Structure formats: structure tokens, C-alpha cells
Amino acid sequence: MSILHLISEASLTVQLVMLMLFLASLVSWSIIFSKFMQLRRERRLTAQFEREFWSGGSMQSLYNQWGAETKRASGMSEIFVAGYREYQRLSERGFANNNDLLDAVQRAMRVELSREIDHLESQIPFLATVGSTSPYVGLFGTVWGIMNSFRALGMSTKQATVSSVAPGIAEALIATAMGLFAAIPAVIAYNRFSYHVEKLVGQYEIFMEEFISIVNRQLTIDDD
User: Fold this and answer.
1) Which whole-number Å values give the CA distances from 109 to 97, 113, 207, in the listed order?
2) What is the pTM of this model?
3) Tens place of pLDDT for every residue, the chain, 224 residues?
4) To bridge 127 with a disulfide, which of 18, 96, 190, 194 should be the other Cys (CB 3.0-4.6 Å)?
5) Strand, helix or coil at 12?
């Protein structure tokens, strides 16, 4: 009645269900660890960039520093680099209309924001899929295993006892347990990562508005 013995004695369909759930769990844990490290790094670099941005230094030097160091780039710094690059390019060309310049800078930052959101949200939907479907896949394996146990019991000429039914039901219930084992961490990680991604995106959007306001003030000062 050991777990390994029950799995090895299960029907082929139940074994395939268990294998599927096991692989889904492995992939989920791989995504959980990689996404945890990615978001932790992103939060650290975002905080570092904000400190440097609001320290009162030159935006040109900040652009040169963060635009060149790709290994240290964060979502917020990439948005800043995209916006400042567009501002610099249009200013050097002598862009006449300030409103059009601001719109161009904002569009460039919006495009980069979309890229950063896609990057942050990558692989997270897989966790949602595993969390929502794994219990049902495990339940399917359980139902199939119990059905086979009762079919075999009905075809047997021996008297039905608990000892004769228990192994088949136990091996079937393992599929449900594996489904929950795959689903619970995936659901917890999905909710946690979604919260952090939403928080980071909110920080990016606030920074964009503040940067546009700074550029607007700078253009107003230049006109005066």
C-alpha cells in the first residue's frame, strides 16, 4: 500500500493523468522561482532608478547611464530612456509644436510600457491555467480509477471486502491529491505575482505622468 506501489499498479489512464499533473507541477515551480527572482530584481532596480531620478541630477547623465547599462535596466528606466530619446531626437530637429512633441514622447513611453507589461506578465497565465484545471484533471483520474475498481469488483466472483476495494480507490485518490498539489502553489503564486505586476505597472504609469509634466515645464521655460 505504499504510494509508489499504488502508482505503479494504477491503470494506464490514471498513470497518464498523474504524469501530466507531475509535469505541470514541475513547470509551475520552475516558473514560480524564475518569476519570483525577476520581480524581486525589478522592484529593486525600480527603487534604485527612482532614487537617482529624483536626486536632482541631470536627466542627460541619467539617460547616458541607464541607456548604456542594459544589464541594470528596469522597466521604469526603459520607459524613461524611450521617452527621453524621443524628446532629444525631436528637440534636435527643432520640433515647432510643443503639444505634438509631448504627444510623441508620451506615445514612445506608452509603447515601451506595453513591452514591459508583456515582459512582466509572461508565463503568469500558465500558473492560472494550472491552478484552475489541475483539480479537475486529478478528479478525472480519480473517477476513472474508482470506476475501474468497481468494474473489476463486479466481474470478480469473490466476495467484496474492504481489502479488495481499498487499493483501487487509494490509487485513484492519489490523482486528486496530485491535482491539488499542482493547483494550490500555482494559484497562490498567480495571485501574488499579479499583485506585484499591477503595483509595478501603477508605478510606471505614475512616473510617465510625472515625466511628461517635467518635459512640459521645461518646454514652457524654454519658450519664455
Assistant:
1) 19, 6, 10
2) 0.82
3) 566 666 666 678 778 888 899 999 999 999 999 999 999 999 999 999 999 888 877 888 888 888 776 666 788 999 999 999 888 888 777 665 778 888 888 999 999 999 999 999 999 999 999 999 999 998 888 888 787 777 766 665 556 555 556 666 777 788 888 899 999 999 999 999 999 999 999 999 999 999 999 888 877 766 55
4) 190
5) helix
* Nearest Cα to Cα of residue 212 among 119, 108, 116, 115: 108
| Residues 182 and 134 sit within 8 Å (Cβ to Cβ) | yes
Q: Which DSSP symbol is given to 93?
A: T
Task: Name every residue whose Cβ is closer than 8 Å to that of residue 34 and which is 6 or more positions away in sequence.
Answer: 123
Residue 210 · residue 80 · CB < 8 Å? no
- For residue 182, what is its C-alpha cell? 499542482
Q: Could you tell me which of 143, 138, 181, 171 has the C-alpha nearest to residue 7?
A: 171
Cite the DSSP H helix spans in the chain. Answer: 3-9, 12-53, 59-68, 75-92, 98-121, 124-155, 162-223
The DSSP secondary structure of 120-176, one letter per residue, reads HHTTHHHHHHHHHHHHHHHHHHHHHHHHHHHHHHHH--SPP-HHHHHHHHHHHHHHH
Other Cβ atoms less than 10 A from the Cβ of 11: the count is 18
Span between the terminal Cα atoms of the chain, in Å: 86
